[in-house]
Amino acid sequence: MAEKELVSHSVTYQTANENDEGQRLDNYLARNLKGVPRSMIYRILRRGEVRVNKGRVSPSYKLKEGDVIRIPPVTVTEGPVTIPSSNLHLVQDLRNRILFENEDLLVVDKPAGLAAHGGSGIEFGLIEALRALMPEQRFLELAHRLDKETSGCLIVAKRRSALRHLHEQFRQRIVKKRYITLVPGKWDRRVQLVDAPLIRNELRSGERMVEVNFKKGAPSSTGFDVIEFLDGATLMAAMPHTGRTHQIRVHCAYVKHPVGGDDKYGDKEFNERLKSLGLKRMFLHAAKVTFLNPKDNSVLKIEGPMPEEFEQALKLLRIKKS
Known about the structure:
Blueprint: E1 6-8, E2 12-15, H1 25-32, H2 38-46, E3 51-52, E4 68-71, E5 75-77, H3 88-91, E6 98-101, E7 105-110, H4 126-133, E8 141-142, E9 151-157, H5 160-171, E10 176-184, E11 193-195, E12 198-202, E13 208-212, E14 221-230, E15 233-240, H6 247-254, H7 268-276, E16 284-292, E17 299-303, H8 308-321
């Protein structure tokens, strides 16, 4: 790829509008200074070179409509935003993975292996990719998140007002999500709800783990339905009633039917069996999301296709069962 010409900009002043209200300053700068590494953004913030209404603020400062942001001279890359080559195979067809779009939002079928957003050592996620692929959209923000190895329906707001509306729906538990997962063994049909509080811990290595803790955990519940019994496995539908980190994965492991392909909470022997069938990822897919259209409160039901690698593994398990 040819090198892009580098140009140095002078001090600029930008005024936050309605779509910018409530957004963190660091995320605002990352969106507006395309081509500038986040490390440089945090450097100019630490030095106090970025000012809001002539005063110093922290990177987490949430903008208000009418705020005047001073942006110092920075070196930016001209031309299209470059998508990191390590993520290229996952993001190059994101436009083709949009399941629904209107003037307020879009729903994208997130591929497994692509983080929802950058951070914690991940420089480039789905939201950054969408901003690079859709520079005409001044505002793009995640309404919620999916684990990196989970695929499926992910809602992205195109307006600040839509984002607030969606967040309120999540708070009131209006949004309904249906996941598809494959677990080892024969699931007992009588187990239709797992109600077990969860707590998040960090190990010395920095790895984040979630576990059931009835004394200190946050209330967490997930509904389950059996879809199909297969050879040594069960295809399940999971409907989280709360939105805790790793909730479905931990609840499945708690009832001794961990999510297939889950390297963190899963069953090693079952994972190896799935690998022998050609499945190299975690078998967890956000297949359907139901919510209210921020524009008119009409019900939107968005459903995405089953990943091809899942279909292939299920086909082989059905053959073995018959």
